[in-house]
């Protein structure tokens, strides 16, 4: 077991430098440490100027995603041991602009997420006195996998199409749209379809599948997209062949 | 009822792509096995020429072969369009690429129809 391991960390301080650089830090190697622990050690003990996002340390908040040796991962779930003997290259999530060090600019993602109306749009609002909107376990199962998304954006970093086409609404936004589309309490399909079946929506996807491969929550956004392509295609043909059904 | 406000044509091409993919995946291995392995290697009795011709001349067989070849071509065309589009980074030529890809599929479909109906 080595005593230490080296992290090569991407640094970018826009007020000081034009170009990003890499800085090496030697941190203690501990079997129970994840990359995020090593970053916290650097921040607390070695170099307080390092910037990065994190919160929960348990794969729930979705804020600690980074590229580790080129792969998009949650740093709170990436054990140092996996990367022995090192060095470990730590970079900000790919395909996003960098604000500073390991912090990426995510307002584009937030805007896209908002575009798919990620909330339940009921056909008609019931007064509270009428009680809950009941749902069977089977109905819950229809959308549950998609509801596990933690908005970590790893799938955007892994998606080569998003890398080439920043306009692409992207894997998580589509999976989250499906989380509501497939919920029997929701009636927002129509308004979401305008966004999803747009040229910047599902049709950009060429089924590379990397989004599902990197997703830490097994959301399977690639599956959500394929499933939605079938739905959108069916609706499109219906609207062409049976215009009266609209 | 859901609507397509945007003027996207993608569902049209995707439907041909999807149909071609499914049909090719199910039928081509069987056809290849029969005509490419089993018959040449003598595992099964080869049909007589007249029987094979009669089979191909049957309207249902013609329709099937036409559908299989044409839709497989549209499957290829759609894939290839995106391969060129993303792979070569030529999105400014989007229209030209699409025309070339789907156009090839149309041409092959017409040739297929001509050949099949002349048999
Ligand atoms: S779909 Fe998976 S990878 Fe993408 S943002 Fe959600 S949890 Fe993260
Ligand atoms: S710190 Fe919350 S997901 Fe890693």
List keywords for this structure.
A: 246 residues, alpha+beta, Ubiquitin-like (UB roll), 5-stranded mixed sheet, elongated, B: 119 residues, mainly alpha, 0% strand, binds iron/sulfur cluster
Helical run tally of chain A: 9
**CATH arch. level architecture of the largest domain in chain A:** Orthogonal Bundle
Largest interface: A-B, 25 and 17 residues
CATH domain fold name of the largest domain in chain A: Fumarate Reductase Iron-sulfur Protein, Chain B, domain 2
Class based on secondary structure composition and strand pairing of chain A: alpha+beta
Describe it for me?
The complex is a heterodimer of chains A (246) and B (119). Chain A is 35% helix and 13% strand. Chain A has helices spanning 35-46, 107-115, 137-147, 154-158, 160-164, 171-181, 189-196, 210-214, 221-241; strands at 4-11, 21-28, 65-68, 71-74, 88-91, 98-100, 103-104. Chain A has a five-stranded mixed sheet. A two-stranded antiparallel sheet of chain A has the order 6-7. In chain A, helix 2 (107-115) packs parallel to helix 6, helix 3 runs antiparallel to helix 6 (171-181) and helix 6 (171-181) crosses helix 9 (221-241). The longest helix of chain A has 21 residues, at 221-241. Chain B is mostly helical and 119 residues long. Chain B has a single domain (13-116), classed as 3 helical TM bundles of succinate and fumarate reductases, CATH 1.20.1300.10. Chain B is elongated. Chain B starts with 9 loop residues before the first helix and ends with a helix. The A-B interface holds A 160-161, 164-165, 189-190, 193-194, 197-199, 203, 206, 229-233, 235-239, 245-246 and B 1-6, 8, 10-12, 14-15, 18, 82, 86, 89, 91. Bound molecules: iron/sulfur cluster (SF4) and FE2/S2 (inorganic) cluster.
Write the layout of secondary structure elements.
The complex is a heterodimer of chains A (246) and B (119).
Chain A: E1 4-11, E2 21-28, H1 35-46, E3 65-68, E4 71-74, E5 88-91, E6 98-100, E7 103-104, H2 107-115, H3 137-147, H4 154-158, H5 160-164, H6 171-181, H7 189-196, H8 210-214, H9 221-241
Parallel strand pairs in A: 1-5
Antiparallel strand pairs in A: 1-2, 3-4, 3-5, 6-7
Chain B: H1 10-38, H2 49-57, H3 59-87, H4 94-118
The structure holds iron/sulfur cluster and FE2/S2 (inorganic) cluster.
FE2/S2 (inorganic) cluster binds next to loops of chain A.
């Amino acid at each position: 077991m080595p005593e230490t391991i080296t992290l090569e960390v991407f640094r970018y301080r826009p007020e000081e430098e034009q170009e990003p650089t890499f800085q090496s830090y030697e941190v203690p190697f501990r079997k129970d440490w994840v990359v995020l622990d090593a970053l916290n050690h650097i921040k607390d003990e070695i170099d307080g100027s390092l910037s990065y996002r994190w919160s929960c340390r348990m794969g729930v908040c979705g804020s600690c995603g980074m590229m580790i040796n080129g792969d998009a991962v949650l740093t709170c779930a990436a054990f140092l041991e996996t990367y022995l003997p090192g060095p470990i290259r730590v970079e900000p999530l790919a395909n996003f602009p960098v604000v500073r060090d390991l912090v990426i600019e995510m307002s584009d993602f937030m805007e896209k997420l908002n575009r798919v109306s990620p909330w339940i749009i009921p056909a008609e609002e019931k007064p509270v006195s009428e009680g809950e909107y009941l749902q069977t376990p089977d109905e819950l199962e229809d959308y549950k996998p998609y509801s596990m998304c933690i908005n970590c954006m790893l799938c955007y970093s892994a998606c080569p199409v998003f890398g080439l086409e920043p306009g692409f609404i992207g894997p998580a936004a589509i999976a989250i749209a499906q989380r509501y589309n497939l919920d029997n309490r929701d009636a927002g399909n129509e308004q979401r379809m305008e966004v999803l079946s747009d040229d910047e929506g599902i049709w950009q996807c060429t089924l590379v599948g990397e989004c599902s491969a990197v997703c830490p929550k097994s959301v399977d956004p690639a599956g959500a997209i394929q499933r939605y392509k079938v739905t959108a295609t069916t609706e499109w043909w219906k609207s062409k062949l049976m215009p009266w059904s609209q | 009822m859901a609507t397509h406000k945007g003027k996207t044509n993608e569902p049209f091409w995707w439907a041909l792509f999807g149909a071609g993919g499914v049909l090719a995946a199910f039928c081509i291995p069987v056809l290849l096995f029969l005509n490419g392995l089993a018959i040449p290697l003598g595992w099964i009795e080869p049909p007589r020429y007249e029987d094979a011709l009669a089979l191909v001349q049957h309207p249902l067989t013609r329709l099937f072969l036409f559908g299989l070849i044409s839709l497989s071509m549209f499957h290829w065309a759609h894939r290839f369009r995106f391969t060129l589009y993303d792979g070569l980074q030529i999105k400014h030529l989007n229209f030209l690429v699409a025309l070339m890809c789907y156009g090839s599929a149309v041409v092959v479909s017409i040739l297929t129809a001509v050949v099949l109906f002349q048999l």
